[in-house]
Amino acid sequence: MRPFWLEQALAAESCAPCEPLAGDTRADVCIVGGGYTGLWTAIMLKQQNPELDVLLIEADICGAGASGNVFYGFGYSGSGVGPCHMGGQILASMVQGLDNAWTRSPLVNGPLGLFPPEPIRYLGSLMVRKAIRRKERAEDHGHRPRHLDVRLAKFAAAAGKADKG
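Request: output the structure for the sequence above.
Response:
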């Protein structure tokens, strides 16, 4: 099932679908997946280096699955335009071997700790997120946060996240 916005766009579109890739092809960079992150990466690569030959391969329609596959953890959602734009900037910079703010981002290092399997990871992320909220709410009101909330909030650093202090 496709998102409603995509169904409407496809109904209004008059062009034929692209032909499948046949045979061998060469490119400087090949991006597999035309979701938001793949699209942003291709755009950033061409903007940063217009001479690059960038090939984007998508099994369905570029952007088709992006708005229907949203996942949450630690209060952030995947497949959003903001996180995908950041991912595109980071990936484009890394592919070109650049040393810039994007390649030096803490996100490049990935998780700083080991995580348990699902569904324990998801439940744990909810506990940590709520503990951070309670801790920060107490601090904002000049109260001392609960000891358990302070301890749980420290787990956010393992995911490369942090509460405000």
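Residues 69-78 have pLDDT under 50 and may be disordered.
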